[in-house]
Amino acid sequence: RALAADALTSLLVCRALGIPSRVVSNLVSAHDTNASLSIDKYYDTNDEELDFDPTNPTGEDSIWNYHVWNDVYMARPDLPTGYGGWQAIDATPQETSDGVYQCGPTSLEAIKQGKVGFNYDVAFMVASVNADLMRWKEDPNAPMGYARIYCNKYHIGRMILTKKPFLFDPNGDKDREDITLEYKAKEGTEFERVSLMNAVRGLKSAQSFFSVPENIKADVDFDLVDLDKIKIGEDYEIVVNINNKSDEVRHIRAVLSSSSVFYTGVKAKLIKKAEGSFSVPPRSTETMRLEIRADDYLNKLVEYCIMKIYAIATVDETKETWADEDDFQVVKPTIQIQMPSKTIPIKKPVLVKLSFVNPLKKRLTNCKFQLAGPSLVRNQGIGHRDVGPGGLVEVETQMVPQVAGEQTIVATFAARELMDITGSVKVDVYDDED
Hints:
The protein is mostly beta strands. The protein has helices at 2-16, 108-113, 122-130, 180-183, 190-201, 204-210, 294-297, and strands at 21-31, 38-43, 62-74, 85-89, 106-107, 132-138, 146-152, 159-163, 176-178, 220-224, 229-231, 236-244, 250-261, 267-280, 284-292, 306-315, 321-331, 336-338, 343-345, 350-357, 367-373, 377-384, 392-399, 405-414, 421-430. Strands 5-4-3-1-8-9 form a six-stranded antiparallel β-sheet, sandwiched between helices. It has a five-stranded mixed β-sheet with strand order 11-17-16-13-14, with no helix packed on it. Strands 19-25-24-21-22 form a five-stranded mixed β-sheet, with no helix packed on it. Residues 1-18 form the signal peptide.
């Protein structure tokens, strides 16, 4: 919310000055602290992930679920022809630039081309939208003291979005515009890799990370099954599919775990963790699973209900180590707000019905709705009886709108077992005397 507020402030200021501006959201946004153009995660010899960067005393890299900034449209006479137009500026920069917390203006064309020598902050923005995710394991024989065990070239900058002009869809995504290809070439194309390598060649700090060869001993494939979202109250599984491509038995040590995380990528609470060893016959497949029940995570959720699953495995015979992770969201129900009409008269009582279904396999107690709307109604607290598993949570009340015009009604619900349930609806309040 703070990010969105700062981005909105920048948007309004720029537009007030006559500069075209738009808000940009980068999903799966990289925070590169050492200008390596990579997001680096480190593991010790016991396959435990380190909570610090052993190669960077100033801090560790992180991956935010999203980051918000602005684009402004302007000429760039300080840059070669073709690098004007949309420029990225960030009112909530994650790192300092020239000793000050500032970022941009950065030419989107320079970001796309990997022109890290251009002003301003091109390298940081390239990393934000197109860094490689690298994993390193402690190895005394490696030049850096850590050997690279895995590189994901497609994880960062999953989608870069802005709002479509003249369209508003408060309950859906019809008003979103995908501008990913304005920031980088399509993932997996030669142009995308060439532009990133252009950036790497321009930064000595990045070259040592990208010059490390891939692990050539790998003869076992691992695949962590992605989760998109689950409904709150549902169980979920961590699933890793394993394919032994060799002609020999492979003995594998593995760790599976799940945690709740903040949107900045910082771990909040460990939910469940399991370790084990097993063998995979030659030319065969196996599946690792770890079941997490709803009761394991319900009291460990944090803001936005983002979860992370982790998997790491080592093959004893080849010393091949693989690791991967995936974020997903636990989705809460939305309060349905029903009225006789979306066009209502001013200063006259209107019946409002609030409802949703209890998604949990347990009883809800201490239930209470709140109903509010700026210049529309005073906050109303409405109690509700206890509700059984899968039961309908429903109340009726009245409101008296006080101000004409388009207004938004917001409803919230909280119980001891289930918090932060929300819903909203827009209404048009009219005055009979107008």
